[in-house]
């Protein structure tokens, strides 16, 4: 159910007051207090929400007309305007009034905006100033000739937000046609506004190029003379260290010609201290222009001496190899939406990222705000500079697309190229349109021209033509595998092996029974980087909602989405009967988080065992919008229990991944145990301890050996384990202690052993439909008598329908015969469910009646059943078909192979096993609906019992047929099914 908060007219003023109260404290608002050369215009402004776009024709940009408008309201600047007007998009016309200091009378005055989303038009004192297009980057205008010195001045700004939810077309900007960030509508003046005064010769731009090869910093200074005559100006540059000591200084006299002038100075920095993640040392640069013994203009910025590049198939920071551990970052906040709720919240999330072992954060498709980047500079975390373009086909393809791409690229790089923390530009993501593929090279070359110093990744994911990186100061690309892959909840042997062979040759892949590893357009034998991996889980909504009720803003989409998601889960748990397993929905959320943590850990362990992979990026540090479940932290920046802890464990500099092959063991066949070491530290001599314990704590294996824990990847231990006397659940525990006896690494991994299964129905005959010969060999091997189903099959015989891959008319007729058999009172087990393949994105998620069985069942496909980066929880109930297996829980571990690829969407019947999920990745035509959050919660069946006439059908989408005779769990579930059916 979707619902609308605070939509009662009489609450309008309460809403406005609430939003102002909430928004103002979180955006570092300062009063309009004069300082020598600059002051802030942040504060409370007036606004007219011009929903019908009539402000231009009615000239509301003129102060008199604005004043007479009865619909003006107040708004905090900066803030997103959806904080005071629910889901508003379109036009907003802002107004504020100010006085400039008397000593500014003969100065050049600039009006500066840190970011306005999306297109802005500016007037001062009823005179036009200019316009700017771009929602995430700063811009300025000269306004001194338009001011009334010593008197009140009126500033009016008309803003057109991105159009996302409606069909509006404003000044040629239509629905989803402009660069946008998917976390919020984020319309309006959402970052700082200020005024600055300077002399007639001013600093237009400064770009610092650090070079650690010779410990120098090149200052590229652009100076503008606004007068029509040359002006002799002294240029002074000072570089100071952390303690304020001057480490570089230079001055010279420039005859500034009218217009643009350029100064390029090199500074040698003696005993340079390099910036890195452990010691984020920053220098401070100051540039002064002095004319007639007065400062005409000044500029300052911090910078670090560092270099990030790739060589020898590794990332390098300051000539030291670095294994890259990044966290994807959505950048949505519970109150501020696009901007951190507070500086403390921003510090907390960066600190938690570093404490979890991450050395990089990848802000996604939104240039990060100045305050957040300041913190990354100070706290020492590498950062990706990304553009607000190419987010799942957005902005949509129009003739404006090439312009907006280049515009965003140019503005983003120019505004952030002095940022030490930003070590790489990421231009595109998962390209899927020819026009963007065509722009790959030209935009990469432009990025290189604008910034020679950083690495440039042309396309994350490599969907277009395969990824390329441009190394610092190089204009030609280097081929590079940038890979996105989501395993979902079950990192079974096949998935684990996929990570091991990613980026490797076909011959290497074949050793693991695979054709290739993961990724698109991958070139074997070159460096690879898995820039997206991870699973998902629902945050603890119970706790989150308490926070929202205390501090949140009910009209924002993020607030509403959390309440709606929680309500959806509660309703679906009741509808499916799974509320008997999870009477407290909090327990369900926490168990999801446990699954999320286990999956993340295994993906990371597998990735780190591949010597061709130089790093990974976990999706994600924080959740948000439609990737709400991906975060290690919830939206309030609270760690999500085991998700955070287990991901942190896998991120450590030294780890010891454990593999038990196979995971589910036939007792008489035994299992292999492999323990590898992965170390980023210097080699050392260690003591390796291995113990295996049963579920009841009985130790069945113990060993202790001295080994060298080498830098890189090494095998620490392997053995064939005799399991003939074992039965049940077991766990391998590994400890590694250094020569001082200190524990430096620990790990554990579970497995199960199954003895020969007794079959109580072995003397009874079953009937099978088995055109693909998927059942008969197993039944013969187990000694279960069977016949092939026919019209003469006895009504008391259990019928099993096997693999129907061909699904031709003859097979369909066979199933029809089974249906008639069931209608007369028979019992049939269908292991290959027939139906219509759909995805949750198809929105065919309406409740399906029993009349749809068995041909018109809507079958969810792997992306929706496995989950990708969203929680898709498959739950087993306590039922005879799962006898001897874990029940009343989310499937994992022992179920990792038979875990379903397909599920029966919203199907009526008795749920023996089923899933609960939400619409996390809707079709592109429906993306609008979920722009500000997740979609509806829904359910599907994995094992379903349903009446048909006088009889009963048992339908299963578990991968039983694929693993019969290969995994004892598949064998056990089928035999349990036969046993159960014979008693009905």
Automatic annotation (TrEMBL):
Coiled coil: none annotated. Pfam families: Glyco_hydro_2, Glyco_hydro_2_C, Glyco_hydro_2_N. InterPro entries: Beta-gal/glucu_dom_sf, Galactose-bd-like_sf, GH, GH2_Domain-Containing, Glyco_hydro_2_cat, Glyco_hydro_2_N, Ig-like_fold, Ig-like_GH2. Residues 1-28 form the signal peptide. Residues 309-462 form the Glycoside hydrolase family 2 catalytic domain. Residues 87-196 form the Glycosyl hydrolases family 2 sugar binding domain. Residues 203-306 form the Glycoside hydrolase family 2 immunoglobulin-like beta-sandwich domain. The keyword Acyltransferase does not apply. Keywords: Glycosidase, Hydrolase, Signal. One of its GO terms (molecular function) is hydrolase activity. PANTHER family: BETA-GALACTOSIDASE (PTHR42732), BETA-MANNOSIDASE (PTHR42732:SF1). Belongs to the glycosyl hydrolase 2 family. This is Glycoside hydrolase family 2 TIM barrel-domain containing protein. The lineage of its organism: Bacteria, Pseudomonadati, Bacteroidota, Flavobacteriia, Flavobacteriales.
């Amino acid at each position: 159910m979707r619902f609308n908060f605070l939509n009662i007219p009489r609450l309008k003023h309460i809403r406005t007051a609430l939003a102002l109260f909430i928004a103002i404290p979180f955006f570092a608002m300062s009063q309009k207090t004069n300082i020598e050369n600059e002051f802030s215009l942040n504060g409370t402004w007036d606004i007219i929400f011009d929903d019908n776009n009539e402000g231009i024709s009615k000239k509301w940009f003129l102060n008199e007309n604005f004043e007479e408008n009865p619909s003006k309201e107040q708004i905090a600047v900066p803030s997103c305007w959806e904080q005071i007007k629910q889901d508003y998009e379109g036009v907003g016309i802002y107004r504020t009034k100010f006085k400039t200091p008397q000593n500014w009378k003969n100065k050049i005055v600039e009006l500066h905006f840190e970011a306005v989303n999306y297109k802005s038009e500016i007037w001062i004192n009823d005179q036009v100033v200019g316009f700017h297009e771009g929602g995430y980057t700063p811009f300025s205008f000269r306004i001194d000739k338009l001011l009334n010195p010593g008197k009140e001045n009126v500033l009016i700004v008309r803003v057109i937000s991105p159009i996302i939810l409606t069909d509006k077309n404003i000044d040629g900007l239509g629905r989803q046609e402009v660069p946008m960030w998917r976390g919020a509508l984020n319309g309006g003046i959402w970052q700082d506004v200020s005024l600055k005064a300077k002399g007639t010769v001013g600093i237009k731009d400064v770009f610092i190029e650090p070079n650690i090869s010779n410990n120098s910093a090149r200052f590229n200074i652009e100076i503008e003379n606004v007068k029509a005559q040359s002006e002799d100006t002294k240029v002074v540059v000072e570089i100071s260290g952390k303690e304020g000591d001057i480490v570089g200084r230079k001055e010279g006299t420039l005859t500034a010609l009218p217009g643009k002038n350029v100064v390029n100075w090199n500074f040698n920095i003696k005993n340079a201290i390099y910036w890195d993640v452990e010691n984020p040392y920053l220098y401070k640069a100051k540039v002064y222009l002095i004319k007639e013994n007065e400062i005409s203009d000044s500029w300052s910025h911090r910078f670090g001496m560092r270099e990030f590049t790739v060589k020898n198939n590794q990332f390098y920071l300051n000539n030291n190899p670095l294994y890259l551990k990044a966290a994807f970052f959505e950048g949505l906040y519970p109150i501020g939406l696009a901007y951190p709720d507070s500086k403390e919240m921003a510090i907390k999330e960066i600190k938690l990222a570093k404490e979890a072992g991450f050395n990089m954060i990848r802000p996604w498709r939104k240039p990060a705000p100045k305050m957040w980047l300041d913190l990354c500079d100070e706290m020492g975390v590498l950062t990706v500079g990304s553009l607000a373009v190419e987010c799942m086909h957005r902005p949509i393809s129009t003739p404006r697309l090439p312009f907006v791409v280049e515009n965003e690229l140019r503005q983003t790089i120019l505004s952030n190229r002095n940022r030490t923390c930003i070590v790489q530009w990421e231009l595109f993501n998962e390209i899927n349109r020819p026009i963007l593929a065509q722009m790959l090279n030209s935009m990469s070359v432009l990025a290189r021209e604008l910034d020679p110093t950083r690495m440039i990744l042309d396309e994350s994911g490599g969907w277009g033509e395969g990824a390329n990186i441009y190394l610092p100061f190089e204009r030609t690309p280097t081929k590079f595998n940038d890979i996105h892959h989501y395993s979902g909840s079950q990192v079974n042997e096949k998935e684990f092996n996929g990570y091991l062979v990613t980026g490797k040759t076909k011959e290497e892949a074949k050793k693991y029974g695979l054709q290739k590893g993961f990724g698109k357009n991958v070139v074997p034998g070159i460096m690879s980087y898995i820039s997206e991996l991870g699973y998902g889980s629902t945050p603890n909504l119970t706790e989150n909602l308490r926070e929202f009720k205390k501090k949140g803003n009910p009209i924002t989409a993020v607030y509403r989405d959390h309440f709606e998601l929680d309500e959806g889960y509660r309703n679906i748990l009741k509808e499916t009967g799974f509320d008997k397993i999870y009477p407290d929905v909090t327990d369900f959320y926490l168990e999801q988080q446990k699954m999320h943590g286990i999956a993340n850990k295994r993906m990371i362990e597998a990735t780190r065992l591949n010597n061709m992979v130089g790093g990974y990026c976990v999706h994600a540090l924080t959740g948000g919008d439609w990737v709400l479940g991906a975060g290690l932290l919830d939206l309030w920046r609270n760690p999500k229990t085991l998700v955070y802890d287990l991901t942190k464990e896998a991120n450590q500099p030294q780890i010891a991944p454990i593999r038990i092959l196979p995971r589910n063991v036939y007792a008489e066949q035994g299992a292999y145990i492999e323990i590898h070491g992965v170390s980023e530290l210097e080699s050392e001599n260690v003591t390796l301890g291995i113990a295996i314990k049963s579920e009841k704590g009985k130790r069945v294996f113990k060993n202790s050996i001295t080994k060298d824990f080498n830098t890189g990847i090494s095998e620490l231990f392997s053995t064939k384990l005799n399991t003939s006397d074992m039965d049940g659940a077991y766990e391998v525990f590994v400890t590694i202690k250094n020569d001082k006896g200190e524990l430096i690494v620990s790990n554990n991994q579970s497995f199960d052993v199954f003895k020969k299964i007794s079959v109580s129905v072995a003397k009874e005959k079953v009937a099978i439909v088995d055109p693909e010969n998927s059942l008969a060999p197993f039944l013969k091997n187990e000694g279960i008598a069977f016949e092939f189903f026919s019209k003469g099959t006895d009504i008391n015989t259990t019928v099993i329908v096997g693999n129907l891959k061909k699904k031709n008319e003859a097979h369909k007729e066979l199933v029809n015969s089974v249906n008639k058999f069931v209608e007369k009172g028979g019992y049939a087990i269908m292991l290959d469910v027939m139906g219509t393949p759909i995805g949750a994105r198809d929105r065919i998620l309406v409740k399906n009646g029993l009349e749809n069985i068995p041909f018109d069942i809507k079958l969810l496909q792997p992306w929706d059943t496995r989950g990708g980066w969203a929680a898709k929880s498959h739950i087993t109930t306590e039922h005879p078909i799962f006898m001897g297996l874990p029940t009343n829980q989310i499937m994992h571990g022992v179920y990792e192979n038979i875990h379903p690829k397909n599920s029966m969407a919203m199907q009526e019947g008795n749920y023996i096993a089923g899933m609960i999920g939400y619409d996390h990745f809707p079709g592109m035509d429906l993306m609008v609906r979920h722009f500000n959050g997740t979609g509806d919660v829904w359910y599907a069946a994995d094992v379903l019992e349903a009446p048909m006439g006088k009889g009963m059908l048992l339908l299963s989408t578990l991968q039983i047929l694929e693993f019969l005779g290969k995994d004892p769990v598949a064998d056990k579930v089928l035999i349990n099914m036969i046993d159960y059916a014979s008693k009905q």
